Amino acid sequence: MHILVLGATGRVGSHIVTYALQDGHQVTALVRTPEKINTHHDQLTIIQGNVLEPQDLFRAIQGADVVISALNTDGTTTLSESMPLLMDAMVQEGIQRIITVGTAGILQSRTEPEKLRYQSSESKRKSTRAAEEHERVYTLLKESNLEWTMVCPTYLPDGERLGTYRVERDMLPEGGTEISVGDTAEFTYRQLMDRRFMNSRVGISY
Questions:
Q1: Alpha-carbon gap, residue 165 to 173, rounded angstroms
Q2: How far apart are CA 150 and CA 138, in angstroms?
Q3: Cα–Cα distance for residue pair 180/36, rounded to 1 Å
Q4: Domains present along the chain, CATH in parentheses
Q5: Angle, to 10 degrees, between the axis of helix 78-93 and the axis of helix 129-142?
Q6: Is the CA virtual torsion 162, 165, 169, 171 positive or negative?
Q7: Contact 56, 44 (CB under 8 A)
Q8: Is residue 48 within a helix (H) or strand (E), and if so which, with residue range?
Q9: DSSP 173
Q10: Residues 1-19: tens digit of each pLDDT
Q11: Cα distances (angstroms) measured from residue 201 to each of 1, 61, 98, 147
Q12: 163 forms bridges with which residues in the sheet?
């Protein structure tokens, strides 16, 4: 399979690239700073570019079968601004499947089910900016005809994969407080072959 990975230099994205290459997939990474990728592999193509430039996205997406986006919010609106451009490129290339990494803040609240977690008393975060960015992406995907899955981790400390974690459609597993970068990346990557969470958010935690 040929996978386009966005956010490949980030904490989660770099693990996803490693897992995909270990399994023999062909990977294209669109990155602003190629020097940040320390992996060298025959199956890895690195393209320097910007997700806000349609021509860069079109260059990177050529020949891909699926897109995995581990872009984070970075204190900007890059995430929500780039998604319509990416979706246009996918439609033009005939690519249906996209897996993205979101945040537990945009899952449904258990205590106030009509609200998202970041809008409810469940949220302890003072700033809602990042969650609002991810919600914009969620809304775009929900209204599209793409086959999407949005993986929504809670507190995300650095750490390797343990391989044992809980997941739940549209909600954070009860009592979940954290999940490692390694396990988040593994679960996100595994969605390539798993269709259980098609067209839905999925919460992940220990």
A1: 10
A2: 8
A3: 21
A4: 2-205 (3.40.50.720)
A5: 20
A6: negative
A7: no
A8: strand 44-48
A9: P
A10: 999 999 999 999 999 999 9
A11: 23, 24, 12, 12
A12: none
